[in-house]
Structures are given as C-alpha cells and as structure tokens.
Amino acid sequence: MARNVRLLRCTPDDVFRVLANGWLYPLWVVGTSRMRDVSEQWPAEGATLHHSFGSWPLVVNDTTVMREWDPPRRAVLEPHGGPIGIARVAIDVKARGDACVVRIQEEPVTGPTKLLPDTVFDAITRYRNAETLHRLAYLAEGGAPGTSGGSAAAGFASTAERELIQR
Prior knowledge:
By secondary structure, the protein is α+β, with helices and mostly antiparallel strands. It has a single domain (2-166), classed as Alpha-D-Glucose-1,6-Bisphosphate, Chain A, domain 4 (2-Layer Sandwich), CATH 3.30.530.20. It contains four helices and seven strands, in the order E-H-H-E-E-E-E-E-E-H-H. Strands 1-7-6-5-4-3-2 form a seven-stranded antiparallel sheet, with helices on both faces. A hairpin with a 3-residue loop joins strand 4 and strand 5. Helix 1 (12-20) packs across helix 3. The longest helix has 25 residues, at 118-142. The two termini are 22 Å apart.
C-alpha cells in the first residue's frame, strides 16, 4: 500500500471543501484529464464521479465511487480505471494547530496493477500521489473556486512543521 503524507496550511474543513466539490477532481488527481458528470448526491457514500484519464486521443472514460465520507476526518474513494482496474484510496486528515496533516493511502483492488510487486506499485504510486497532495494543497490552502480557504502557502518551511506530522 502506497502512503504519502503532507502538512497543509489550512484546516481539515478546507481540505474537505475541495473533496466535496466533484468538479475539482481533475485539478488535484494526477492523470485525470476531464470531468464528464458529478452525481447530484456527491460526496455521499455510493455517489459517483464520471471522469476521464489520459491525454487525447488516448482517453479512457472511467468513474470514481465514494465509499466512505466522514468529514473532516476521512474519505475513501474507489477509482475504476478501465483496463487498469480498481483502486482503493483513503484520505485521512488530522488538525495540527493552524494546519492539518493529510495522508493518502492507495492500494490496487483489481486489475493488472494488483499483479505488480508491492515495491513497484508503491514506488510509482507514491511518486504520483506526492503530486496529488501538492495539487490538493494549492486548492485547499488557496481557497479554490467553490470553496473557502486559508493561506496560499504550501509545503514545509521548517523542522517544527515536519514535527507536527509525526505527532
């Protein structure tokens, strides 16, 4: 299971406002190229996002189902990646002073990525999800359209901030 952690300079509510707006999905999820539809029930459990991944002309239509929605603590999504298979992505958020720590964990459920050795899957996925968290930070910290957000700062500025993650 691939894990990434990042300190965001915003509240957990700011993060969940981004997650709750399904139309923002391609802005923070690496590989997603466009939205096709967001179910009216989003982000309720069982609701679906209809999006595509890849670059034209090699675009695959797929969906993501919300499996668990517990703001401002946890969301579990199930992306259906067409020929790549299905994954389980858990996003956990914990307040740390004026900031929050976001952890994303991803594991394959079905498809060819499930056949990869864990070390290979984890290395590829951690690399991609580091960028995913970077993008999510920009949206949550900067107050993306359709949300309200905190400061525009991102990343780690000090050792003290890194220590907040480890608590």
